[in-house]
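Narrative of activities, Objective 1.

The group set out to show that a structural description can be obtained from nothing but a protein's sequence at a throughput compatible with the screening campaign. Below is one input-output pair from the validation batch, recorded exactly as produced.
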Amino acid sequence: MPAIQPEQWRIETNKRYSEIVSSVTTLATGSLVIPIALIRQIVGVKEGEAIGPKLSWHVYVSWITLGLSVLLGLSYSWLSAKWIKAACGQKTALGVTWLERLMDWLFVLMLLSFVVGIVLLVRFAWRLFA
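Output recorded for this entry:
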C-alpha cells in the first residue's frame, strides 16, 4: 500500500463522503416517483385520472424532505469542491475550518431528511396495503 501524504488522507476521506452524498442524492431523487407508481399500480388509478385525492400528507411531507435531501446533497457537493480547492492551497471565500463545519452540517441534515422522507414513504405504502 503506498504511503499517503499528510493531507492526502483528508482528500481521500472527502472522496468517500462525496460518494455517500451521490448515492443518497440519487436514491432521494428516485424515491420522489414512488408514491405515483404505487398509486397507479396498487390502487389502480388510470392514466389521466387525478391521483391527488389518493395522496396523504405523508407523501407531501416526504416529497419536501426528499427534495431537501437532494438540495442539501448538491450543496454539499459544491462546498466539497471548494474545500478541495482550499485544501490544495487555493483561495476561497471561506476558510477550510468553516467549509468543514458547513459540510458536516449539510451531510447530517441531508441524511436526516432522507431518512424522514423514506420513513414517510414506507408509512404511506403501509397504509395503501392495509
